[in-house]
């Protein structure tokens, strides 16, 4: 049986929570209008993503207002919602992704592979998470987690669907629109990695990325500015048919019909690209 899955790609403004929730609410409503049983919001959708943001000031527990807001929307629209948020657990702050429905919290995943400045702001997660739902088993990853083979390896034969929230930059120079000399190769991967993962795991993958410009000061290097734009390209990907719905660079909702149990868990189509002697798809990470 096929189900409609939505990737809600929105442009956020750092620490403008009310405006970000309004954008998310509009996207969730549109996903509901398209009959989605699951809608996925990007990484840190409520706070925005920026290197210099003091995330500890907006971190909250899983009983906090943002999680409660998501549960309220899940009840209102009658669907599951996955979304990235800043989680506080005691003195620790995590880059987390939660799954909710009308009954409440179903799962919480913490980003395992923190990159660049993120290590100054967050604690890393330690393990994969699989949520058992009425629609099947759902696994989770956040943004740069997609680069690392062990993340996907841990989900082999364990899931029927992968959900990814991201705030993946384009890695281009704002003034010239040319790829960054060192990191420019990373931008297009947000479109390639979900397709590789879907074919590898034999299950659909949905990734919701942010859109719009991003700029901030770099933590530890206050004289250095960071200006870029998010890469967009949110997508719903099928393991057999490839990309069935993909967004562009701007805010957009994409919906795709996927069959969550069309392949036996032990049936593998290809050799994993993550198993070719490297710990990551990009050497050096």
TrEMBL record:
InterPro entries with a match to the protein in the record: Aliph_Amidase/BUP, C-N_Hydrolase, C-N_Hydrolase_sf
Alphabetical keyword list: Hydrolase
Name of this protein: Nitrilase/cyanide hydratase and apolipoprotein N-acyltransferase
SUPFAM superfamilies: Carbon-nitrogen hydrolase
Domain CN hydrolase, first and last residues per copy: 3-260
Gene Ontology MF annotations: hydrolase activity, acting on carbon-nitrogen (but not peptide) bonds, in linear amides
Gene3D superfamilies linked: Carbon-nitrogen hydrolase
Lineage start: Bacteria, Pseudomonadati, Planctomycetota, Planctomycetia, Isosphaerales
PROSITE patterns: CN_HYDROLASE (PS50263)
């Amino acid at each position: 049986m096929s189900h409609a899955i939505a990737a809600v790609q929105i442009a956020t403004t750092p620490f403008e929570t009310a405006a970000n929730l309004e954008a998310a609410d509009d996207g969730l409503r549109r996903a509901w209008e398209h009959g989605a049983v699951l809608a996925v919001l990007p990484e840190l959708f409520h706070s925005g993503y920026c290197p210099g943001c003091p995330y500890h000031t907006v971190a909250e527990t899983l009983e906090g207002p943002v999680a409660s807001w998501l549960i309220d929307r899940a009840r209102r629209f009658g669907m599951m919602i996955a979304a990235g948020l800043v989680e506080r657990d005691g003195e620790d702050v995590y880059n987390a992704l939660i799954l909710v429905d009308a009954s409440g919290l179903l799962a919480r995943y913490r980003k395992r592979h923190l990159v660049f400045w993120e290590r100054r702001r967050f604690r890393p997660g330690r393990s994969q998470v699989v949520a058992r739902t009425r629609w099947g088993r759902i696994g989770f990853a956040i943004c740069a987690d997609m680069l690392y083979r062990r993340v996907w390896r841990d989900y082999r034969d364990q899931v029927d669907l992968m959900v990814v929230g991201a705030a993946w930059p384009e890695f281009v120079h704002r003034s010239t629109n040319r790829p960054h000399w060192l990191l420019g190769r990373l931008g297009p991967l947000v479109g390639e990695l979900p397709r590789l993962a879907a074919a590898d795991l034999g299950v659909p993958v949905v990734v919701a990325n942010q859109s719009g410009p991003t700029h901030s000061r770099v933590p530890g290097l206050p004289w250095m500015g960071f200006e870029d734009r998010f890469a967009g390209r949110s997508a719903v990907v099928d393991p057999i048919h490839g990309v069935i719905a993909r967004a562009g660079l701007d805010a957009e909702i994409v919906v795709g019909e996927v069959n969550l149990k069309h392949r036996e868990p032990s049936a593998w189509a290809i050799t994993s690209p993550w198993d070719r002697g490297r710990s990551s798809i990009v050497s050096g990470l």
